[in-house]
Amino acid sequence: MEITLPATIENVEKVTEFVNAELAKINCPAKAKAEIDIAIDELFSNIANYAYNPEIGKATVKVEVQENPQAVVITFMDKGIPYDPLKREDPNVKLSADERGIGGLGIFMVKKTMDSVEYEYKDNHNILKIKKNI
User: Fold this and answer.
1) Running DSSP on this structure, what letter comes out for residue 84?
2) What value does the mean pLDDT take over residues 30-55?
3) Mean of the pLDDT values across residues 114-121?
4) What are the Cα distances from residue 94, in Å, to 98, 100, 109, 110, 113?
5) Three-state SS at 50
6) How far from 5 is each of 94, 105, 123, CA to CA, in Å?
7) Listing from the earlier edge strand, what are the strands of the sheet with 116-122?
8) Is the pLDDT reported for residue 51 higher than 50?
9) Hey, which end of the chain has fewer CB within 10 Å, N or C?
10) Is the model more confident about 86 or about 13?
11) What pLDDT, on the 0 to 100 scale, is given for residue 128?
């Protein structure tokens, strides 16, 4: 299943509802669902805020369920500025917020809570896949 819509902050909720409908079909545990929801918020918000700035482009979110072991793979695709968030150095969470500087904490949380996070730039698309074992 996939959904394509304008990459705006207002559509984070629609993307979350779309993914949650798929998660409900497989009785996704509450903790995994909460972690996935946080990842969706972070990743779709980043697309909305940075991929096409100042224009608004489209983004596609695809949900796949894998078996043995059961996992959910969510793919975020956009035609915005090429950007690999995984190349960004992880923030030093031992420093205070002031010492650490702005940015990077959201993708760091995604990397820590998902079982895998992959990025590629292919056919003029940013493609970011997250996988959560259920």
Assistant:
1) -
2) 95
3) 97
4) 11, 9, 14, 18, 18
5) helix
6) 38, 26, 19
7) 2-6, 58-66, 71-78, 125-133, 116-122
8) yes
9) N
10) 13
11) 98
d(CA 69, CA 126): 27
pLDDT digits (tens, 9 = 90+) for 74-100: 999 999 999 998 886 655 555 555 554
Rounded Cα gap, residues 75 and 59, in angstroms: 10
**Residue ranges per structural domain of the chain:** 2-133
Fold held by 2-133: Heat Shock Protein 90 (3.30.565)
Q: Which tokens is 130 given?
A: 């997250």
Q: Are 129 and 118 in contact (CB under 8 A)?
A: yes
